[in-house]
## 1
Amino acid sequence: MSDHPSTWISASELTTLYARKVLSPVDLIDAMVERASRLQPSLNAFVLIDGDGARAAAKDSEARWLKGQPLSALDGVPTTIKDTTPVKGWPTRYGSHATDETAAGENAPIVDRFQAAGLILLGKTTTPEFGWKALTDSPLQGTTRNPWNLKHSPGGSSGGASALTAAGINPFNHGNDGGGSIRIPAAHTGLVGLKPSYGRIAQYPADAPFADVISQGVLARSVLDTALALNTTAGPDPRDWRSLPADRRDYTVGLDDGVRGWRIGLSLDFGHVKADAEVRELVAEAARHFEALGAHVEDVGPLIEPLQNSFEPLWIGSFATRLRQIPTQLHGKLDPGFRAAAEKGLAITLADYARSYEAKSKLARDLALWHRKYDLLLAPVTPTAAPPVETLYNSDAFPRWTKGAPYTLPCNLTGQPAASMPAGLTKAGLPVGIQLIGPPRADHLVLRAMRAYEGSCGWTWPQQRVVETLTAL
């Protein structure tokens, strides 16, 4: 299998090569389309590949670079869009037979931002049905696989994006995160995954179930690329009344200022969750890295109460809202796990929902007050490494509240920024992530901590293990 070196180049390096006329966006897209087509049968990470559209956009980008007039610092960088997100002219299928091939009439805000900056859309990526779980398989698209080990899941719900990024297809790929859906797949595939502050990147449609907990973002192989992507995508949109006001901040400025003198709270049992021993040790080792960088790290214990009793009504109640929108004759074609959770949610009352919202407000207040003393919270991303692809989500063997998304969901409920960074590998050779959680709306501080850790942990791409796995296909 061709493993063209250019497919592993970071976004920041790509545009430097474009500016020097050492590499053309057209040549890069040809290499990306070839690699995507070769790996798709094994990874099953694409819903669609638009090779012709990508090549046309690459020619336009090439012309701009030849004139010295790029649209942005990311002009000509290829990416993809998760198939929960509208792209004008493409269908939005959500991994479900309950949708159809009707093309979207307009872009989501993040797609508009990408295209205005000259990024090239290579296609759409897989998601579990309606993004409902932290694994990526769906009735419509089948099972997406992890490039580190094809017998394992890349996580979810942005699993198509994580599989592609980890396999050297695009420097970063779009994802979104309503309960961990950027951070979990990033952890399972050895990537950098920032969930920005809620509202930092406008979203649309903004009235969908879970709209008040979802953040848009990317899954990348470097912190600098993540910061550049946030520069490109951050900002309000009139279609999203919750989006934060415009902020002229350049997220690459101050990125290398380090964490010396910071107070960092370490919570291996965040929310009274018990991670596997290997995960705990890798997160503890990350804490030692931060101490070596000059931070003061303190074990702060579980910090918050278990989430299930307070927040299950929000989760299954929102699924029930989606279920009510689907014709009854199509219910038999739904993911059985999604259908079971949604049908259980039909019994949720308005009083149940109101109590969950009250608990959500209290959790946000408590963690904001905690951050008055601490600059950063360090915790695991997931209790385990990537599970096998046949894992049944929210089953007795893999319950959502103790195995699926227990460490990541709190930051969706509070809206504060949080990121996954690679912590190392298990003995079985599967990646593990650490979670870096910042104060409300302090995305720049989370990025700064990410960058400091990235420089100290010795994790570099491409990882030989992934290259060997994919070369053997």
## 2
Amino acid sequence: MSSPRPLRVAIIGSGPAAMYTLEHLLAEPGLDVSADVFERLFTPYGLVRAGVAPDHQKIKAVTRAFEPLLHDPRVRLFASVEYGRDLALDDLRRHYHAACFATGAQTDRRMGIPGEDLPGSLPATAFVAWYNGHPDYCTLAVDLEQEAAVIVGMGNVAIDVARILCLTPDELRRTDMPAYAIEALEASRIREVHVLGRRGPAQAAFTTPELKELTTLEGATLRIRPEEAALDPLSAAEVERSADRTLARKVQLIQEIAASPGPPRSRTLHLRFCIAPLELLPGPGGAVAAVRCTRTRLVATPSGGIAAEPAGEEEVIPAGLVFRSVGYRGLPLPGLPFDDRLGVVPNRAGRVIDPATGAPLPGCYVAGWLKRGPTGVIGTNKPDAAETVRCLVEDAAAGRLPAPPEPDPGAVPDLLAARGVRWLTCADWQRIDRLEREAGAREGRPRVKFTSLDAVLAALEQAEAPTSAH
């Protein structure tokens, strides 16, 4: 049986996983496809805009490859439309042959230790969203009056948070960070930043380029304790047998930094290994004042991995601000099954499955972190999306996709309008993008972001208003 023509596909989300899904759909040879992209926020691109560090403009440039996809005549963007609020699964089934959910991992994992919810203890995900101008986090209370901060975790996000806390005013003002965050960070009293990893240098998840950046900070000295940079026998064996030589180079760089720290600067960034938090301790006012930690030793696991266990020696690190950065986590979506333990939608190669029967749910697919968990970098989503699209196209060709009762493309805008939804189109996004860049150019910055829907709607209305003749 031939695939339906045109194949109507809804994509929920507009971050990298969603955009790569769209790219593969549009590139499928001989496929007559019509795709609608639904984005909860008023701007597209997900974590590229709201998660990638503001001083990493080269990484953000991946959106240049995404822009033409949204301008393709087969594609419509519905921004400021939230699945579960403005649209339900039944709506998608009524108007589309298939829906692919690519909403990412929207919350953070918890450390599971006493004091985690004290004032002054925050998820790194929230802080990242705050300094990136995410509209949901602009009013986040971040106490930068403290003199020391602790970041728990050793991934690239943890390193980003540490670096942002250490940037000088000049470095901050070269970014697309919103003005409120720049002003707060310029006034920050933080002088000591501690990044804690429960395992050793060989197990650190950050990449070598992220580490190198820490050595070039204008206002902070990176310090690593030589004894913590040394490899235990298990880690040395892991590095030796690893086919990935970048691991050996990263360990070598860690040891070089430990042996030759830079000159003292106004701030000190401590990268600590084999140390794990046990408890966040409150001060007299009830907010976090210190982190009680334990030294750890590395042990082999039955599966052949390396785990950390308490070594018995404890340490208290004074800090009035703590960020947990121990991983992202997906959230359930209305109408779809969810694996609460893994934080993903149960699936096989992108096909959503009923966990009770193992049978695919016709027309439902996932891509990205919601599919596989929060692993990999932006580019990892490309082959991941290709796998999902391959399944979708196979199902369409085999006649396994239910025909939507109302496939008319005009029915979707009518439905949203009837529900009072004010959505933004690709043309609206083009205007927003242009206005942000123009404002940035006036300040010598990449862009000045809008951080609220009201401000966006006001700016669009002003841009569309006819100028009076004089």
## 3
Amino acid sequence: MENQDSFVLHGNLIYTPDRNKFISLKDGYMVVENGTITSVSAEKPAMADSLPVKDCQGKLIMPGFADMHLHAPQYIQIGMGMDYKLLDWLDGYTFQEEPKFADPDYARKIYPRFVDEMTACGTTSSAIFATIHPESTDILCDILAQKGVRAYVGKVNMDTNSAPALTEETAESLKATEDFIQKWQNHPLVRPIITPRFVPSVTAEMMTGLGQFAEKYQVPVQSHLSENPGEIELVKKLFPQDQYYMSVYDRFGLFGQTPTLMAHCIHLSDAEIAIMADKGVYAVHCPASNLNLASGLMPMRKMLNAGVKVVLGSDIGAGHTLYMPHEIVRAIEVSKIRSIEHPEETPLKLSEAFYLATKAGGEFFGQSGSFETGWSADFLITDIPEYQQERSVDEQLQNFIYHGTAQDIQEVYVQGRPVKNTRK
């Protein structure tokens, strides 16, 4: 089985084709051919006679998670500075740690640990901020590619209002970014994403160049938006001619002109929410990070009702875990807290939060994150406690999301190939 990407999987299957419902099959079958799902059924398929059967009876099988906003170099600062708010936290910790990645040997030491833990937590797709350093960013991409996981990786751009060790010369940064795009744009799993850190740390000249790259190479974009009131005021001061924070990105071709991820999106007016929906820009909800830095409670239900595409992110190191089930639970809890003051914003259901962490995020990469015909075979095989064996598959998933741990994940697959197997 280890070297094959065509097989029949037999076990308890569960997925969310849309956010309003689970589809589950106890002792169901999923046919995988050349890394792609070709059928899901309750009965043993005819293909089981010609393909090897991977017997996972008594195991829970679900799509892999998509972590749509995280900072790989901040892995080394998880849990630090949680008494600060955003801008002070960046100055006190992040902008002290990220310069260390100017040393490629440091990247070779830290990044494998980050990738190993991320995949051990069941994440099969991710959108990652690296640092400004081209060589270290390439090292991160190489590790992800060798591991066989799917990722968008950004060489970060910063040419103003940053720590001296993280302030680039604009032309050099743009040249390094274009080289990075050209090197990785055709890789089957690991690809480039344009990554201005956030509006305060990039000049108009930098954003002009990045917007041109997005159009020229049809590369997606990721950045931050309206995370913290102090940050929003700083953007107004730096770009007073723009009506909204998001208007700055939009003016330079970095807001929906190609697929775009914007993390946080907490403090948005109704008009801004409508613009996001109209432009198809993804809002990445990072509940742990937003709580840790006291940034605020994202109006998830309001955004979903307005038609905004919403996905989930761990946002390490402001977030403190790479284990996405914890973000699923926190997203639900944050929505319940908001509903106390905003009763019109009904809390998220588990099916909705699970969908955001699987199919909604996976679709940013193509057909990943669901068990549907033609979709990539990206999935997790997890243990089910003995005392949960008689429960329905839906209840087994509830128990895993709220009570399970990364140690319950036995195997992780991307495109039908094993990424992690803890039970050698």
## 4
Amino acid sequence: MDGVLAANVVWIIAVLVDFAIRVAAIIIIPRGRKPSSAMAWLLAIFFIPFIGIFFFLLIGSPKLPRKRRERQREIDALIDERSNEIAPVVRRDDWPKWFGPVVTMNRALGRVPIVGGNTAVLIDDYERSIAEMAGAIRDATTFVHIEFYIVSFDATTAGFFSAMEAAVRRGVPVRVLLDHVASVRAVGNKQTIAEMNRIGVQWSYMLPVQPLKGKYQRPDLRNHRKLVVVDGEVAFMGSQNLIARSYNSPKNIKRGLMWHELMTRVTGPVVSGINAIFLSDWYSETDEMIMHEHLRVADVVADTSDAAVDCQVVPSGPGYDSENNLRLFLALVHSAQERAIVTSPYFVPDEAMLYALTSACQRGLEVQLFVSEIGDQGPVFHAQRSYYSELLAAGVRIFMYPAPYILHAKHLSIDDSVAVIGSSNMDIRSFALDLEISLVVHGESFVKQMRAVEADYRAVSRELTLDEWAREPRSSTVLDGVARLTSALQ
């Protein structure tokens, strides 16, 4: 009888705890969270309460720790202070009427002003972009700042590492930031760290997950930025990581996968804005404040030719109170008057972004989306596929870049005068969980380069039609729907 009573007591306690978890979830989870994300978490907790609450406690907070966010506000104030030295825009009269408010919003969110007198050249060749970055480092005289999601020492990047070594030998400070989780998981990480130590570069992991060292935040909040700044005069940024085209992964090599990227080389006053993002991240990770020493703005020569472009750097991520990149993309798509062309390897938009693109079609605009035909990340690829039906039905033209390439480039062009390039995917992760950097460029010369890149994509891609998609097996679309639901767990 005592055993039966004990079993009943345990059962009653379990039921009460389960009920308490569900009630607490309804009260706590929706606070400050998007309805789609809140609903996904609630479903997880209601169906698998104990497992669901464990994962919510582990990855439920989409923000960096308070100390890190306070440091971001400190950095924003410093950028505001120094921005008065940056050269003003030189041809504001050329802007579309809608562009000024977008620029104002970007300044309010990311603190970096728009500047004129820049040059921006696209590089769509994987090896050439690494070679050009290495060439700039070989010419460095003052400093080299490098920040990548993944840094790896391999046959493809050996010349880049050689350029860093030569710069260090000349007495040029070389600072390197690499994401902790992503780089540690990369093949050959120990050899990469050993090589950087041998060379003598100053380096630090970004957002390290090292609880025993007192360094911890939600483990999937990552620094996804990719940039190089040399002497405050030339910078590179875009989608490419510092690693071989296959990422050296046996799984990728077996499938023959190769990444296709897009980078841009910029000169002019905007380089100071890109450098400010590096200096911010360096301070956040190392506690070393070198903003005043290395944020060169007053002596940068502006381009006054007709090919000069206006540029604005827009940083985003969980250190900010707002999803800066999502607001930027929404403002641009809603402002478009003729066309919006999106390239994203991982296209998992939130509801607002989906409505913006489909509404653009309904306004009579030309809307195109470039994605990969195959995926390297199963859950994300299936979540992406779940949006095809709605997009195609609205009139969005979807072009699928052929296997075995992963189209990893990330850019957006609006009408014939504005484009964005950077590290940000058009997905929920990049909007809310990853630190990203985007470059807004106003100038027909740059958009023409973007149009040429898009034309190359289109020439080799296959266009997906609504009729073809309607014949997709039900089993696949069910899996797509499940992946779409779990993508909202942020």
